[in-house]
Amino acid sequence: GESVGLHLPTLSVQEGDNSIINCAYSNSASDYFIWYKQESGKGPQFIIDIRSNMDKRQGQRVTVLLNKTVKHLSLQIAATQPGDSAVYFCAEKGNNDMRFGAGTRLTVKP
Amino acid sequence: GAGVSQSPRYKVAKRGQDVALRCDPISGHVSLFWYQQALGQGPEFLTYFQNEAQLDKSGLPSDRFFAERPEGSVSTLKIQRTQQEDSAVYLCASSRLAGGPGAKNIQYFGAGTRLSVL
What we know:
Oligomer: heterodimer
Strand content of chain B: over 45%
Number of helices of chain A: 0
């Protein structure tokens, strides 16, 4: 069936390096994508979103890239900090539905 | 408060007990959502309210799950005759504008209620 998934379940980076978290989706009808950050014991926190008519969107230290040709979404975090350690979820919306991926755990090493 | 508030934060129930989970959305938010999050997984949609109307309950796993939002503000998710597979974190989210789970509105999540059924 159609699903949202992530390539890597865990990612470990050195403080100050850039992080790239990937997500694959298979529902071609999805037209809106969101990245959430979830710290331990907390609910998901909105980071950035992108609509399907865009291929790139930038926020503060974060960039989301959307490649509709290969149905791929990525989140880039610049100059990763210890406070960025969390589980990151991509979510896709379409057809009155919202689906989350399983998540990638990002660990930042000092 | 400034954010979505959920209570209790933790709930332990014996199998067969009924439980009630509360959600206080951000004041003035029209839309309210409930999600179930199993350990190590992403949240899964349960149900959606627009004000007091429950417009989508397609994600509720069985008729043991019931949600209400009688005055269009606070919502309660009730699980009857709990079973071990109900153990999960139950998340509530609210959104300022109307629109179901597929709407292009930002959802603000609470910290969740962790339910453990023994």
